[in-house]
Each structure stands twice: as C-alpha cells, then as structure tokens.
Amino acid sequence: MWAEKLGKQLGRPTWSIGGWLVSRFFIRRNRVLEENAVKLCDIQPGDTVLEVGHGPGLGLQSAAKLLTDPNGRLIGVDYSEYMHSKASELLKEHLASGKLTLHHCDVAVLPLADNSVDKVFHCNCYYFWPDLRKGASELHRVMKPGAVMLTTLRLEMVSYMASKQVMPKDNWRPDLYMAALRDSGFTNIRMEDKQSQNITFQAIYATALK
C-alpha cells in the first residue's frame, strides 16, 4: 500500500504532506539530473526549449540562464497542479518577462504547435506516463526536424524502486522507453553512462526524424 501511494505522489504530487515531501525530495535529489540534462541538450541562446514534468522548476531555472537571445523561449509542462504552482512561484520573474510559459497538462496532449521546439529534456519522468507511445508521439509532433531530446535518470535507483513496486508497471525500463521513441519516429537513440559530482547517472538521447 505504501509503495503504491509513494508511486502516485512521485508521478503526480498533490497538495498534501506526501506532495510536500516529494517536492523536497526532488529539490535534494534531482538537481544533478536536471542541471546535467540542460547541459547535455546543448541549448543555444535563441532556442525554444521544452521541459516535460518540470517539478518544482530546477531544470527550467538552469535552462533560462542559457536563453540569452531575445528570441529564446522556455516552456514547461507538468501533470501536477502542485508542481505547476511551485514552479510558477520559483520562476515568477521569467513568467512576467514572457520568456517562460508553463502549462498544467498531460504529455500526451501538449498545447503546442507542430514543429515548434528545438530542444526537449526531462528527468525521472517517462516512467509515469500512462502510455509511452502516446507521450513519445506527441513530443515528436511538436519537435522541429533534427531537434534533440534528452532524458536523465539514475537507473540503479529506479530499478531498486521498481523492485519495491513503487514504479507503475514496467514503464520504467529504458528499453521500453527507447522502443517507444523508435516507434514514434525518433532516431539516433542511445543511452550513455555519465558522471557528475561523484554520481553516476544515465542519459538517453533521441533526435526527431521528420
């Protein structure tokens, strides 16, 4: 029972004690993954960048620093109303300036135009998508030809949590996620081991093929 409740809070934190604890966990444990996802995306000053499952906003905060061109745009989406609120508070100056737009929505139904995004990143996110194929296909739709998507995770930790039945079904498995990307039209799909601040993590790359 506790594992199922934890899994639900990790996938969609709520306005509750559990949601607050998960938010603190994200801030403490996800920062390295968020910052490295941004770094590995090779964001350019004028890019339009999307983060899926932005959580409290750490990755968006890091990415915003790189979008120094007036044409640079940042978009965040999250299924959790609580995380949408937390990120809105953290990034209120970027929201006021018009550089950042946040959407409270499902990854399978993005309020974005076709072929409009240069870079996509997400961290500890895809395992909570109800349908990997629908999520991957929707991301492929909004990405420009040749656009790059980068996801980061700590596979050892995710695998351990899956063994405790915290993760829903088998969606956490990188091979299933990468297969969904391939089926949705992505190419150059690969997973690499990386290190940062004495932490080993995995980065999954994919390029939108049109």
Q: What this model shows, in words?
A:
The model is unreliable at 19-23 (pLDDT under 50). With 210 residues, the protein is of the alpha/beta class. Helix 3 (31-41) packs parallel to helix 4. The protein is built from nine helices and seven strands; from the N terminus they run H-H-H-E-H-E-H-H-E-E-H-E-H-H-E-E. The protein has one domain (2-208): Rossmann fold. Helix 7 links the parallel strand 4 and strand 5. It has a seven-stranded mixed beta sheet with strand order 3-2-1-4-5-7-6, sandwiched between helices. 41% of the residues lie in helices and 26% in strands. It is globular and about 45 Å long. The protein has helices spanning 2-11, 17-29, 31-41, 58-64, 81-90, 92-97, 132-142, 155-163, 174-183; strands spanning 48-52, 73-78, 100-104, 117-123, 143-153, 186-196, 199-208.
Structural class: alpha/beta
Please summarize the sheet with the most strands.
7 strands, mixed
CATH superfamily: Vaccinia Virus protein VP39
N- to C-terminal separation?
44 Å
Determine the mean pLDDT.
88
Oligomerization category of the chains in this entry? single chain
Write out the strand line-up for the largest beta sheet, numbering strands in chain order. Answer: 3-2-1-4-5-7-6
Q: In CATH, what is the class?
A: Alpha Beta
- Poorly predicted regions are 19-23
